[in-house]
Amino acid sequence: MKLPKSLGTVAFWLTWPALWIYLKNSKRTRVIITYRGEVLLIKAWLGTSDWALPGGGRHRNETAEAAGIREVMEETGIDINTCEKRELFTDRAINELGFSFTHSCYVAELQKKPKTALQRSEVVKAIWASQKQLQSLKLSKASKACLEAWSDSLDLIH
Predict the structure, then answer these.
(1) Is 147 left (phi over 0), alpha (psi -120 to 50) or beta?
(2) Which of 125, 118, 122, 129 lies closest to 2 in space, CA to CA?
(3) Partners of 87 in the β-ladder
(4) Has residue 91 got a pLDDT over 80?
């Protein structure tokens, strides 16, 4: 498992200039999938080895919510189409690598813990993390922003 991830990290940095051009000013969606206070996190094959929320780029004329539903299904095999979802925010963001993009974040609260079927060509690992565990994990900047907004919304609700 470490060799493919290491190759993905090397490939990411080698293709960085092309990725920067391709992803610059893109529209992206992340989804916080929760079950009983735990959050599903993934590690992508191609990337910086940070934990992230499922999600990705939006297709032309695709809504942020539809992109989130599609990306979650593609990456994890979890169907969130029928569960209740709420939008936390849509905003412009700049990640730690300098990408500027439109970033939408949703929360999907599940009533039953699903089994994951990871898309191995893209995702190498997934974990369910408690809110306490989230503090000790290396998270992507975009995922941190989503999780902070979610935490703030929980404080407002309670």
Answers:
(1) alpha
(2) 125
(3) 106
(4) yes
